[in-house]
Protein: Tricarballylate dehydrogenase
Organism: Rhodoplanes elegans
Amino acid sequence: MTDLTPTRFDVLVAGGAAAGLCAAIAARLAGASVRLVEAAPEALRGGNTRHARNFRIAHAGPAPYVPDSYRPEEFLADLLRVTGGDTDEPLARTLIRASAGIAPWLLAAGVRLQALDRGVLPYSRRTAFLLGGGKAMVNALYATAEALGVVVSYDTTLVDLRPDDGDCAVVLDTAAGRESMLSRAVVVATGGHQADLAQLRVDLGPAADRLVVRGSQYCTGHGLDLLLGLGAEPVGDRASAHLVAVDARGPRFDGGIVTRMTGIPHGIVVDRTGRRLADERADTRRTHYAQWGPRIAACPDQLAYLIVDQDGLRRVGPTALAPVTAPSVAELARRLEIDPASLDATVRTFNAEAAEREPAVRPLAALPLAAWPLLPGLTFTHFGVAVDTGMRVRLRGGRRSERVFAAGTTMAANVLRHGYLAGLGLTLAAVSGRIAGEEAARAAA
Ligand SMILES: Cc1cc2nc3c(=O)[nH]c(=O)nc-3n(C[C@H](O)[C@H](O)[C@H](O)COP(=O)(O)OP(=O)(O)OC[C@H]3O[C@@H](n4cnc5c(N)ncnc54)[C@H](O)[C@@H]3O)c2cc1C
């Protein structure tokens, strides 16, 4: 069959998740002809965005999907707090201002948001929740992009990019082989490099060998490498990553949020030698699991175990994978292959300390015991390329590219170089994608 896909577009978007889809829709709405290439097959499209639940928005008053208000200055203050002020503040202000308009824009693009009055999700005046989660968002944005006339190609990876005065020469790897095309402007929205296991080993050392990648296996950092090869200024730290505690029995990639372990303050966490890593009750916030990722990464074999008794089991609630149970400490040690004498001594010491801190801390007394094996799970890396406030890629030596743009995780480290702010990743993706798409359409015209 003859391939009717034209070989020249106004805008090529690489990466078919939140940032790329928002860029493609925005560029198309601005009148550009747009092709979007997604490395994954159709069934696995949508990158890390598939796993996201909520996004952070500045707003002046209540809306059906978000209560109260959250002023841009509060948003910026939260960002400055988690980054210790190490952020590109003019860019952060631009993106925060634009976050105020992103929910209506996404709604108009077919995305559905959870209504507040349902009361089934945690209260937040800072974030709106996606109805049906990230996968529903991705499906809605693809449907809208295609209805608008964006040409979508799956199983298609951007492998080379050479901007010239007029056009960018682009090389794609497709199921049918190599393909060359021309595009007036290119938006690189290919996520981070969290699935590049060889590079992670260089950056993080042997601890990377057992890392669980919570998101897409298609985010191999290829787009980032291409931009760096063009002279893009790097931002952030390749070796800095957001690590959380996940069930070791989950899949190596794409386990998403269901394998994350959130019940740590209800038990004790020990390594393979039976020793506790830290005080499990020192941080009982909902986000406590993020403290434990780096601790588990530092354990022998990066392996640890959360152990609870029957009281703790009730408090932990249901988990994706059932715990290992045992009627005694000795039997649990045998099943987990931990030295029984060492685990017994740890539990005795913990119980003696707990007896002095009751009722705030309860001893592990109600048998049988239950345990989950834990590994560090990588959510995202704090590394990308520098952009200006129009998402144009900034080049080393103070220049900027007029035709190459970056959006989403590919540029998120401009704003979030370390730390974590719930709902920020998806906001940065949608907002920067929208801006990049509009600016790329303008550059193409
Ligand atoms: C488990 C989990 C839960 C999360 N929950 C939340 C949340 O609730 N709220 C929040 O704000 N953030 C959350 N995040 C972070 C959030 O998902 C990301 O910040 C956001 O989705 C990034 O979107 P993106 O479009 O930039 O990149 P991604 O969603 O990572 O997508 C990148 C896309 O590029 C494609 N690609 C890669 N290389 C190429 C190439 N060379 N050519 C073509 N295509 C390529 C990939 O296939 C992928 O589709 C979560 C992340 C994970 C892993």
Residues 110 and 143 are 8 Å apart (CA to CA).
